[in-house]
Structure formats: C-alpha cells, structure tokens
Amino acid sequence: MPPLKLFAEAPPITRSWVSASVVMATLASSRALDLRSVCFSERAVVYNGEWWRLLVNFFYMGDAVKSLFFWFQLHHFWECLKVLELVKYRWEPADFIKMIVCNAGFLLLLKQFFPAMIFLGSPMVMAFVYMYSREYEVQVMNLLGFFQIKCGWLPFAQMLQDLLQAGDIGPNLLGLVSGHTYFYLTEVRSRMLLPDATTLEDVANLLLHGTPLGDEGLGEPAAAAADAGAAADAGAAADSDADEGVAAPASGSEGDADGDAEDAAA
Hints:
It contains eleven helices and two strands; from the N terminus they run αααααααββαααα. By secondary structure, the chain is mostly helical. It has two domains: 3-191, Rhomboid-like (Rhomboid-like fold), CATH 1.20.1540; 200-265. A two-stranded antiparallel ribbon has the order 1-2. A hairpin with a 3-residue loop joins strand 1 and strand 2.
C-alpha cells in the first residue's frame, strides 16, 4: 500500500503519536526547537506550572533523522502500537488509554532514580515493544529486513540496536521494567491461583509443617469430591443390602416349600 494510505488507515493514537515524534525530531535536528523548553523538569512543573512537560517529553525519541536506526526504532514503535490498538485493545479502548497512562506514570516515578534522563520517549517505546512481544511472543517477524526472529526477542534486539547507535541501554531498561510490571499486574497475576488471605498461622504452618499457603481454599473442591465419592459408596452399599434383603425371603420361601413337600411325602 502507498505510504500515505497506510498512514491514513492507521488508528488515531498511533498516527498522532508517530506524527508528533517525527515533527519534534525534525524541529530539534534543524535547531528550530529548543529542547530545554520541552524536556521533563520537576522544578519547572512544580514551581512554574509548566505542566506540558509531563506530556511532551514522551514524544521525543531523538533528533538523528538521518540515521537508519532512528527510523527502524520508529518503525518498531509504529507496528507494535498499531497492533495493540487495532487487535488487542480494539474493543476496549479505555484499557488502551489506561495502559498508556499507567506506563507514563510509572516511568515518571522511575525517572526519579535517574536524574540525568530528561526525555522518556525511548523508555515508552520499549514499554510498548515489551507489551507487544509478550502478547505475540511466538509470532515470527522480520527484523531490519534481513533477520527473522520471534517477537519474544524483539525487546532485546531493540536494546542491541540502541547500544550500537547510542552506546546506552539505560532508557531501554527503564521501559522494560515499566512494561513488565504492567503486563504482570494486568495479564499474569490475574490468572494466578493465589490464596485469598494469608495469616501468620498459615506462614507458621508452611515453615514448620510444609503446609501450602491457601491449602484450605484450594482443598474445598477436593473435599467436595471426597464427600460426593463417599455418598456414592454409601448409595452403592445400600443398593447391595437391598438386593440381598430381597433375595433372602425368596430363599426362605423355597426352603418352606421343600419342607412342606417332605411332610406330605411322609
């Protein structure tokens, strides 16, 4: 398909995000945009009320518009975000917005441990790439037009690419932690069988006797099955007793008839 048609048919959030990133990279490379006015600064947000820094810094992914690695990174971001918006969150757009907001908030929190990091566009890209790779980890994709890898390895390939380009994988690690945390809390933990409530007594039993946590809750189906089995055994025993009770009178009747026949003969 022609590039303009691909761009027009892309979902709105993906199209808007990538457009903003390209515009910012172009303006920054031509020195038409002062990056100090859009970078994330806690003091500028808190004391000067420059709240737009909380949003705009996520759109900047570098200004190396003449580098192939920049466009490869943008292409990975385009494909991952488009598939997530069109496929996974097609019928739950609110969940897609929640994913973006939660990852943005978590990255702003993690950024406090890395004061030198003033733009969070690359960590956000890695968070989306990680979510995509975990959702479609067995799918085979074409990397850089030359290699075929499974999507589960895409975040590490992206880290290697950024290492060759910039020599720094710190932003990627930050996005990896954010994406993994969100995926674990929303996709993995909800499918785990965890005890409803753990008390100190449960912990003591685990340490002293090896009793698994939540054994009572998980044992209810087994106890119900055992009760059902016991009821079935009791029913079978009652049926067998009833059969024997019916057969006994028949045997007695035959014995009485034989005795009467002997008396008549005598």
